[in-house]
Amino acid sequence: MSKGRILIVAYTFPPGEGGVGMASFEMAKGLRALGWDVHALTREQNLPDDPSRPACCPVTSMPDSLTEDSPRLKKYLDALLEELKPDFIIYHSWSDWCREELMEYAGAHRIPFILRSHGAATNFSAFFRLRYPPFFGMKKWIGSFLSIRKSVLRTGKDEPLNRLVFLEPCGTPFKGFDYYYASRLKLSNACCIPNTFPALKRGDSFFREKYGLTGISVFTCAASACATKQQLLFIRHVKRMDLQGIVFLFLVPQRNPYAEQMEKAIGDHPGFRILYDLPRPEVEAAISESDAVFLYSYQEQQPLCILEAMSCGIPWIAPDIGCISVLEGGIMLKRRTPRCLKKALTSMLDPDTRKSLGAAGLRQWQQRYAPHAVYARWEAVLHSAKKSENIQIH
Q: Looking at residue 170, what is its pLDDT?
């Protein structure tokens, strides 16, 4: 018997199409396994068929053209939600995609609306389509930023049934901004629940042999090729170093212009490899057979590739961004400089260091990020929202 119907809303949904898409997919799969009736609403992405991508729940893909026509969008959502009759709506997205319309429907029909806020990234450009803030009009720019975030935080004030769920309590304006602001406002309907997914397991080794990586140290970066991930900067910094016996492996979902720049920057250097569009089992094998996982991004909230590494006892290297500062099992770069990076990479070559860091990361993942721990907290939020609804009705 179903515990209730949940509509999970995500701007991207299939796994392997971005961190938020993978996180929302795992949420749908995990809650469904616990007996909840889950339906997903996402944008139409025209993705190629991937036999390695399992189905986890019914999915409705909405054309982007609808979001440009508010009356049509409301009519579409009204019809969809009347058919689905969700008991809860979990909005799991970076953007404001359909958020106001869904909140309006939830309020009118007394449906608990749970917004999964990813906060503000270290760089504000996540919420502006600007590469850098303007030098003139800075006050207006910051005011605009605050206005956007306040509209998200209003979720926890306008309707008693609503809930706010944050990734981590990183309480500074630049890391976990929504949590920081919600705590200042003393919002009562807010809590922190991290992302999760099943642990990556070390199975029979095959990846290194298949791709000619046996007998050397392999440091892996599993991320899309883009400016925010800063792979180009990483390549340039490493090429200045005299590091022997390491291959830096980039697992990139799709070849794009940025990836082409990476290829050009690498040239014939033997210390780098790029593998494109690997099936999910091979991505997992690459991470679990690596000596370490690295990330050089300047804009993350809770990097899933780092959590994946922790789940199978692989150490990591990453800059002090997003929620990295609360994670164990790796080396956090206070500064993204060649000197700082070289020190971290050299330290990670020591087997004892890797072993102790990997064990610490696995231990923290089991205690805080494993599915059983995370979904127990999600169910507590759902039951709390349902209890509030019943009290109001009576």
A: 76
Scanning 16-132, the segments in alpha helix (DSSP H) are 19-33, 70-84, 99-108
Is residue 278 within 8 A of residue 254, CB to CB? The reply is: no
| Cβ contact 179:153 at 8 Å | no
Which residues 6+ apart lie within 8 Å of 68 measured at CB? none
Measured in residues, the chain has a length of: 394
Low-confidence stretches of the chain (pLDDT < 70) are 14-20, 46-54, 94-95, 119-160, 171-174, 389-394
Q: What is the pTM of this model?
A: 0.83
- Return the bridge partners of 218, or none: 247
Q: Strands of 316-319's sheet, edge to edge?
A: 272-276, 246-252, 217-222, 292-294, 316-319, 330-333
Cβ atoms < 10 Å from Cβ of 339: 11
Rounded to a whole number of angstroms, the CA Rg of the chain reads 22
Bridge-partner residues for 369, per DSSP? none
- CA 261 to chain CA mean position, Å: 25
Residue 85: CB atoms within 10 Å:
10
Cβ–Cβ < 8 Å for 234, 203: no
Specify whether the backbone of 118 is left (phi greater than 0), alpha (psi in -120 to 50) or beta.
alpha
Residues 146, 304: contact at Cβ < 8 Å?
no
Write down the pLDDT at residue 230.
93
Pairing mode, if any, of strands 272-276 and 292-294? unpaired
| Residue from 243, 200, 199 nearest 218 by CA | 243
Whole-number pLDDT of residue 28:
92
Kindly state the tokens that stand for 350.
Answer: 């020591």
Which region holds residue 98: left if phi is over 0, alpha if psi is between -120 and 50, else beta? Answer: left
Long-range Cβ pairs for the range 62-70 (8 Å, 24+): 62/98, 67/43, 67/97, 67/98, 70/101
CB 252 within 8 A of CB 274: yes
